[in-house]
Amino acid sequence: MTVHKVNDVAHEPLVSGSEYKSNNMALPMEDGSSVVILLVADPQIQGYQFEGSIIGPFARWDADNYLRKTFSFAAAHTKPDIVIFLGDLMDEGSQATPNEYRDTYYRFLNIFSHSPNVKRIYIPGDNDIGGEYRDYRTPQKVDRFEKHFEQVDGIIRHEFVDFIKPVAYICNDCMRQDDFSWSVHQRDLTHMHGFMFENISRSAECLTEIMVPTCSYRMGEPHMGYGVAVLDKNGGLHYGILWNPNRYRVLYSYIIVWIFVILVNVICFCCPGVTRCFGRRLVR
Questions:
Q1: Fold (topology level) of 4-245
Q2: What is the mean pLDDT of residues 177-203?
Q3: Burial 124-156 (b: 16+ CB within 10 A, else e)
Q4: Strand 35-41 versus strand 82-86 pairing type
Q5: pLDDT of residue 5
């Protein structure tokens, strides 16, 4: 597979639509005949069972707020025709109780709210309907997903593009030696800046694989973002990534500030003489 990157720029964390433009992430459009697709991978909306009762509310609020802001910036910049959610919409979707599932579902809708004219496609992951280790996939889990989102398989057509929703998982190693694929073993996403271009219609048997990073910092990955694909009628594919800011750096800075504040208060409480001496120096 031949990959051509255009507008190669240094990587900087992106926090607004204007910064996407300033980093040469303007969308390559073909006279209005292109379809813009915003790819959202592994949002994993946090649940209620594994977060704990003390830190859980804050953790859910912060993760939800991060996703809401970054998605709104990405959607405002790309103005997508379609938004595709690539699995693991919820973190505890497979294990959640009916009430937990309902609450998480409404949080999901609130986080990823956008224009009603934008087509949405939902692909379930193992966290949504099971299928990993002892978390088995069952008809009940699939039925619950389909009642809240949409059918787990099938073909969805939008303008000149057919979206085929897989009925089975595809292994990561299947296309390692395929020259027409972009395998996880052949590319480090962190080195990708700007848009690459690939003609995906050069062969009827051509299968082009692209990678999309997670959009949630709760996945533990240092680099998060949203994939953007621009397809034209001639089979041209421009693909790029809108990188999100690093949330953990901000959280760590909060922790450091809180530790400093606590230490100051402890010193003031345990050593009042030091406080009075410091106050006198300030007065002088």
A1: Purple Acid Phosphatase; chain A, domain 2 (3.60.21)
A2: 63
A3: bbbbbbbbeeeeebeeebbebbeebbeebeeeb
A4: parallel
A5: 30
Residue 178: CB atoms within 10 Å:
15
The pLDDT score that the predictor gives to residue 14 is 41
So what's the pLDDT on residue 275?
Answer: 55
Q: What is the DSSP letter of 71?
A: H
pLDDT given at position 276: 56
Return the beta strands (E) in the chain as ranges: 4-6, 35-41, 82-86, 119-123, 154-158, 161-165, 195-199, 225-231, 236-243
Task: Give dist(CA 138, CA 94) in Å, integer.
Answer: 9
Mean pLDDT of 38-54: 88
Mean pLDDT (whole number) for 71-75:
93
152 vs 159: CA distance, rounded Å: 21
3-class DSSP string for 80-114: CCEEEEECCCECCCCCCCHHHHHHHHHHHHHHCCC
Domain with CATH 3.60.21 in the chain: 4-245
Rounded CA-CA distance 43/111 in Å is: 10
pLDDT at 18: 45
**Distance (Å) of CA 218 to CA 82, 107, 255:** 25, 16, 17
The amino acid occupying position 51 is E
Rounded CA gap, 24 and 14, in Å? 12
Instruction: Count other C-beta atoms under 10 Å from residue 262's C-beta.
Output: 10
Among 21-25, 131-135, 160-164, the minimum mean pLDDT is found in: 21-25
The pLDDT value recorded for residue 4 is 31
